[in-house]
Amino acid sequence: MSGNAIGALTLRPLDPLKDAELLHGWVTHPKAAFWMMQDAKLQDVEREYMRIAAHEHHHAYLGLHDGEPAFLMEKYDPRYVELVGLYEPEPGDVGMHFLVAPTDRPVHGFTKAVITAVMEELFADPRTRRVVVEPDVSNKAVHALNEAVGFVPVREIDKPEKRALLSFCTREQFMAARGVAI
């Protein structure tokens, strides 16, 4: 994936059973409130990630920082998952969620490095033309991060579980946000 001043960030497919205990600690942590799994039991986390693993259009990955679990990435096809009927998908659209593990020793710039590495991974697939996200409208921290890597908010939408800010980032917008000429 990427190496930088933060260290090496890599991804591997999530193992729903082997990784459930680790993920349970992450998704139930107070800093993960927007993940909406605060009250989840271990079995709930296993069940959710087994469901994702079995889904043809939704995939979960464990992100590693210098080989140690540090973040979660999900990618999905918004034609079939999360955004069905809520916007007009275009060919090459890929939906994304990410969650950085809670830590007692935060590293300045780490979350931006993670979202940058996630976007690099998504755009490494030449079929990906645009990344789509739908964070909670009140999640100001993630809106700022999204903007920093090139996302442009389009409009608020009502999902069953939240009011969300639909935002898009094309390959060109991502490259421009990184200061890379195309």
TrEMBL record:
Annotated N-acetyltransferase domain residues: 9-172
SMART domains in alphabetical order: AlcB
Molecular functions per Gene Ontology: acyltransferase activity
This protein's record includes keyword Acyltransferase: yes
Pfam families for the chain: Acetyltransf_8 (PF13523)
Pathway: Siderophore biosynthesis; mycobactin biosynthesis
Top-rank taxon, per record: Bacteria
Gene3D superfamilies, A to Z: 3.40.630.30
Record key words, sorted: Acyltransferase, Antibiotic resistance, Transferase
InterPro entries: Acyl_CoA_acyltransferase (IPR016181), Acyltransferase_MbtK/IucB-like (IPR019432), GNAT_dom (IPR000182)
Function: Acyltransferase required for the direct transfer of medium- to long-chain fatty acyl moieties from a carrier protein (MbtL) on to the epsilon-amino group of lysine residue in the mycobactin core.
Name recorded for this polypeptide: Lysine N-acyltransferase MbtK
Organism: Streptomyces bullii
